[in-house]
């Protein structure tokens, strides 16, 4: 029976460690960003939780998506929508964008205030008039990339969570 020298064993362990670290780094580099948690939309005693439909790294250079990540919820007129976001979102600037139909049937768009990092873990959306019908809501998490647009500074959207409203 042949015995390995201490030096041979140490070299073998070092090679194994280097190979392991290299494999881990390659997998992490090619895996792309992961979804930053789930958002919950709730209205009238019902709720829907959904993962991000689009998500990027902080610099908004590497992105992934989940086309099946869409929540559907019934939200009757004059019913507030409560949006609850995870810590991964509250640690960054975020906002809720939404669309609704007014009493005349015209589609309107709106946005919540932008929430600063470390502030609100949720937001309650109340439309301007009791007869307005919410049609969609989208949580937008902003990334670190900022550019100058025609209306001032524009922040790149890092991740989005989508609610489609069932208004039957």
TrEMBL record:
<protein>
    <submittedName>
        <fullName>Uncharacterized protein DUF2771</fullName>
    </submittedName>
</protein>
<dbReference type="InterPro" id="IPR006311">
    <property type="entry name" value="TAT_signal"/>
</dbReference>
<dbReference type="InterPro" id="IPR024495">
    <property type="entry name" value="DUF2771"/>
</dbReference>
<dbReference type="Pfam" id="PF10969">
    <property type="entry name" value="DUF2771"/>
</dbReference>
């Amino acid at each position: 029976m042949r015995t390995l020298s201490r030096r041979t064993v140490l070299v073998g362990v070092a090679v194994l460690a280097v190979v392991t670290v290299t494999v881990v780094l390659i997998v992490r580099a090619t895996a792309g960003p992961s979804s930053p948690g789930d958002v919950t939309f709730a209205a009238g005693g019902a709720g829907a939780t959904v993962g991000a439909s689009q998500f990027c790294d902080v610099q908004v250079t590497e992105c992934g998506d989940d086309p099946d990540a869409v929540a559907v919820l019934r939200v009757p007129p004059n019913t507030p929508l409560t949006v609850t976001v995870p810590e991964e979102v509250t640690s960054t600037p975020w906002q809720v964008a939404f669309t609704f139909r007014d009493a005349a049937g015209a589609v309107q768009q709106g946005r919540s205030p932008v929430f600063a990092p470390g502030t609100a873990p949720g937001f309650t959306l109340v439309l301007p008039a009791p007869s307005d019908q919410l049609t969609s809501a989208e949580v937008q998490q902003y990334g670190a990339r900022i550019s100058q647009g025609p209306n001032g500074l524009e922040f790149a959207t890092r991740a989005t969570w989508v609610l489609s409203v069932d208004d039957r």
